[in-house]
């Protein structure tokens, strides 16, 4: 008989329900069993002993909460009787031991990628169009409108115009009003350009100088990204994020300035139509050049992989996140870079990560970033403990430390080679910690700006997130979700919950899947839906 | 002979150059004259006396800077020799005297507007489609793609597809590649619906609870806005900004809940196509109903007017902003509401505004909001003095206090009837202070969310800002700009600089122009360009 609940670590005083547990029934976990005294929804936690106010809740062997109301053995752990609590930590590293999975079967594997002049390898070949300030968003959108449909990057496969047309026909039958429109689509004019990606954002002026600088750093990261052939940049003229600021940030990432960057300034151009005409002409010519790129075999070490969870549930930390951790442990042995981010969701596991840092200096950097971030949240009367969303809580992630303990498993057990801050670019092979919010889109935006040419995103509740330049593979933590939201989920890790698959099996299948995505043979669901989310993290204030 | 420089107040120790002043020439101001010892670019300031480090710079009779390097009489005031300084202020009101312009010619005037069930009157009739969280942006954009072209709200007049098509034809002539596409456009199916406006934003989750609440307040303000007939709302499901939070905020603004609000939840819908199909069907039916609205005559008291400056130059505080102030002084006498915002740009004129507040309580509220905002900027190592942008500085607004002294003139001389904080809705007739950043789009977004059914936006450098629900009239501070960027400027106040027009004449013409816009007879340049900027002010942190 399969287990119906899981004790994640022998030190834990709660079980995770793998399915709904009814009051009065018994529950098996490992070789043991106990009785249920209160209905426990799937994904939620049941007390393994009588708990009194002040007692700590342990999961994954870690402190994840504090009891506020008595909970009997067999009773439900909830926001009514438990509050967030996390273990204190110091910057001093303690020795750790760990075992890495065998990466030998993967050492000779390659993917078909675009080799860039700077040595990086892309999994896609895009042209970027981006504004230095929000005032230019509308012009970027008009370039999109003009270029996408005419050059064959349109939305036919993904349009609801036909649906509206049917509504119109019904209306027409009912009364005399009439309307008609015909959809047409062009063949792809530049077949080796996988797309033109149009970024819009809300920064570049009306804020702090630091945020303007960080925005330029992020945009430079996108231009430097291996999936990008070059960029068209629109400037208004008077904004904080000046053209030279972007160019300095780009030079810091690519001293040879190997990529074409076409810059246009509206206040210098005068008429809007002058600006648009010049930008379109130059972009068109640049696309012809970008179209000369072709794919060739590259080692897996050329991958930079963002690790992300969002819309998490009580199974995230048991199925999909550990599978990602296993995959990360494989990849870092092959020389790839992996990025663990979402710092508010590392609150509670700081000491474990500090212990895994390869030097005191790296550990100190993580310690300092966590402290500064936490202080800033408290300064606005919030805190890391406010991270779990209503959906998280309803699905069993009732404290930030519970969420964190599961979230951190995406990083596996490998040493932490480097710690970098937004909007830095990742340059160190191995596991990197990249300081970002847990906010899904801000995090994926930052990972991509750090050079991620692949993002692996686990979800228990289902969320459609994608990115303009990195393919985002969405992995469900449970099979119900993979089935119910098949149009946004790429890969199902639910077999780990049902016992059909081990974490190692699931991770191997996922890596195979990822190579197909990296090759361009497989488009992610987000790419199919045209879901290109982009939100730069703004840390300062508006002025 | 016309003046070539202006002494704005008899207490001022600097002149504003109305045109470039060459070293060695003389300059006339009022009845006086003096000699120029250094080239002074137009819009910049010249010292009227020898100034030593520590001396204060006075403009509009107010302290706007402190001298850091000696400046000889006739020399240029610049960031090299002057830094920001502003006068201290207290919450205690001092008596003020003021003279209002004669509003009698306008008392019987009306505009043709849409009367809503709640008594408000719209200048436009829109249907709104908006997401509760950024995860739904893509679905909102797909609804836009499906509805706009099919229902006749497309971009033909404003599209660059034809431009790209020409480039393709040239390419075709050069080699054998081919592509073709035909643009089609539908007649407007619902002629009394002026548009469907699709909002996207970057909030609703991954941040503080306070920001989720503020976002719901802002979105409720947009739904409650007199230009809006009703709304379609997309929810993911697990986000912080829950459906009930939006509904509570809407009820607080409109206790009778008079407008149709259609809500769809993706996680409850399962397939993306189920969500999209239901949302489109219901929206289509609601548009039929919204189409029954018609315009009728309404008094000018039904106007709520946002006062805004952006991309400001050294003439903003001399021409367009005083014209707006005059107009505001007319409107408040007619019972309209006017909104002065951009609090970082009121730094330096706090005492003047406090003195004008109608009660101690209103004054204290303004004092408290300015203090809290300033403290928050300092906490992230910034400050109100960082507000001027590179473009502002280059065009003569070298300190925040100089910028503020000119910016505050948009509010005229009328009493301050109320002080409200973002995202509150304005309900008090007369001049209101609404706490927002100077950030152009965040400010206009907030003014519209406070009920502005018209926004007047002055600019010296040229900026394309528009809003999804409020028409934004853009007023140039100088005629060169009106000519050079004719496609984004609606009204030229430059005649005040050349001496062709008085402030009163300019304000009267502008009010006449605004009535045409309110009637819907006249579309603003932003409406013609489809410039619908929307950025909710986020005060907290990402988590
Ligand atoms: Ca997460
Ligand atoms: Ca999340
Ligand atoms: Ca957008
Ligand atoms: Ca301003
Ligand atoms: Ca500005």
From TrEMBL, chains A, B:
An annotated Gene Ontology molecular function: lyase activity
Keyword Lyase found: yes
Keyword rRNA-binding: no
Residue ranges of domain SAF in the record: 12-83
Gene Ontology biological-process entries: D-galacturonate catabolic process
Record-linked SMART domains: SAF
Record Pfam families: GD_AH_C, GD_AH_second, SAF
Keywords: Lyase
Family: Belongs to the UxaA family.
Name of the protein described by the UniProt record: Altronate dehydratase family protein
């Amino acid at each position: 008989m399969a287990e119906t609940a899981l004790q994640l670590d022998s030190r834990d005083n709660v079980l995770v329900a793998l399915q709904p547990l009814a009051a009065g029934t018994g529950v098996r976990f490992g070789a043991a069993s106990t009785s249920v005294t209160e209905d426990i929804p799937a994904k939620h936690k049941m007390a393994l002993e009588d708990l009194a106010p002040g007692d700590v809740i342990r999961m994954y062997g870690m402190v994840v909460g504090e009891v506020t109301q008595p909970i009997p053995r067999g009773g439900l752990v909830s926001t009514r009787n438990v509050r967030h609590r996390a273990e204190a930590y110091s910057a001093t590293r303690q020795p750790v031991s760990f075992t890495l999975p065998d990466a030998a079967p993967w050492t000779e594997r390659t993917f078909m990628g675009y080799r860039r002049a700077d040595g990086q390898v892309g999994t896609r070949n895009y042209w970027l169009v981006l504004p230095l300030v929000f005032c230019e968003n509308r012009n970027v959108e008009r370039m999109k409108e003009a270029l996408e449909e005419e050059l064959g990057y349109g939305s036919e496969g993904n349009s609801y115009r036909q649906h509206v047309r049917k509504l119109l026909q019904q209306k027409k039958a009912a009364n005399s009003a009439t309307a008609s429109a015909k959809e047409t689509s062009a063949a792809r004019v530049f077949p080796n350009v996988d797309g033109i990606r149009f970024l819009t954002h809300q920064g570049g002026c009306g804020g702090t100088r630091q945020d303007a600088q960080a925005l330029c750093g992020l945009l430079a990261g996108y231009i430097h990204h291996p999936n990008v052939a070059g960029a068209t940049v629109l400037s208004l003229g008077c904004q904080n994020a000046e053209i030279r600021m972007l160019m300095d940030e780009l030079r810091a990432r690519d001293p040879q300035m190997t990529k074409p960057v076409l810059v246009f300034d509206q206040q210098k151009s005068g008429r809007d139509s002058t600006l648009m005409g010049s930008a379109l002409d130059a972009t068109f010519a640049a696309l012809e050049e970008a179209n000369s790129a072709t794919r060739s075999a590259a080692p897996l070490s050329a991958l930079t992989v963002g690790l992300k969870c969002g819309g998490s549930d009580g199974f995230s930390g048991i199925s999909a996140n550990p599978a990602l951790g296993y995959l990360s442990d494989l990849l870092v042995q092959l020389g790839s870079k992996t990025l663990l981010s979402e710092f508010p969701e590392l609150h509670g596991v700081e000491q474990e990560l500090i212990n895994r840092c390869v030097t005191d200096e790296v550990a100190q950097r993580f310690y300092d970033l966590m402290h500064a971030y936490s202080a800033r949240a408290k300064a606005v009367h919030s805190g890391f403990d406010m991270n779990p969303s209503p959906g998280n809580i309803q699905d069993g992630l009732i404290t930030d430390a519970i969420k964190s303990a599961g979230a951190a498993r995406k990083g596996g057990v490998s040493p932490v080679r480097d710690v970098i801050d937004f909007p830095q670019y990742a340059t160190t092979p191995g596991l990197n910690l990249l300081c970002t919010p847990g906010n899904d889109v801000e995090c994926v935006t930052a990972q991509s700006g750090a050079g991620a040419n692949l993002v692996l995103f686990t979800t228990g509740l289902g969320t459609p997130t994608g990115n303009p330049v990195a393919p985002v593979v969405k992995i469900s933590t449970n099979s119900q979700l993979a089935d119910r939201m098949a149009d946004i989920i790429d890969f199902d890790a639910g077999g780990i919950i049902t016992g059909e698959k081990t974490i190692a099996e699931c991770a191997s299948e996922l890596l195979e899947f990822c190579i197909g995505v990296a090759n361009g043979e497989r488009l992610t669901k987000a790419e199919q839906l045209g879901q290109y989310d982009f939100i730069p993290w703004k840390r300062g204030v508006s002025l």
